[in-house]
Specification:
Blueprint (H helix, E strand, L loop, with lengths): L3 H21 L8 E6 L2 E8 L2 H6 L11 E11 L2 E2 L8 E6 L5 E7 L7 E2 L4 E8 L2 H4 L11 H4 L2
Parallel strand pairs: 2-3
Antiparallel strand pairs: 1-2, 3-8, 4-7, 5-6, 5-8
Length: 152
């Protein structure tokens, strides 16, 4: 049996945690942005640099404009693996080398926990709406442009 005092403390803890739980269900829309190019195509990419930003990524979004994406930036090159837990829209992940060259692409299905990994160590992953790269005939070996790739 729980005493009234413990019950009150438990309710207080739940009440204080509620805003954090609610906020976690909202898409992050206020990240810094970077302009990238894929030949003549321009990309307006939100940039996820911190572990918390990368963890949330594009979760909970119901849609994303076709010219937008999210660029995940890691501190060190490593084999990067992504999944789609809590992600509602189909995406393609481009695993990108330091110089902007696409190493490999992976189509990812909404709400899937299947892991999609880079074929070799990379520092960047660019997520776009699924089919964006294919419709523009962009594949592994294509070089993306942008200041972020020149900074290294």
């Amino acid at each position: 049996m729980i005493s009234r005092r413990h019950s009150t403390i438990r309710l207080l803890v739940l009440a204080l945690a509620w805003p954090a739980v609610s906020a976690a269900q909202e898409p992050q829309l206020d990240l810094p942005r970077a302009r990238l190019s894929a030949g003549m195509h321009q990309i307006d990419a939100q940039v996820a640099r911190t572990p918390a930003q990368r963890q949330i990524g594009l979760m909970h979004r119901k849609e994303m404009p076709q010219h937008e994406g999210m660029l995940f930036v890691f501190e060190q090159a490593a084999v990067q693996c992504f999944w789609m837990k809590n992600t509602l829209i189909p995406l393609t992940a481009a695993f990108v080398a330091d110089d902007g060259t696409i190493v490999n692409l992976a189509d990812m299905q909404p709400l899937s926990e299947a892991s999609h990994c880079s074929e070799r160590p990379v520092r960047y992953v660019l997520e776009m709406n699924q089919g964006w790269f294919e419709r523009r005939r962009l594949s592994a070996g294509f070089k993306l442009g942008g200041e972020v790739f020149k900074a290294r």
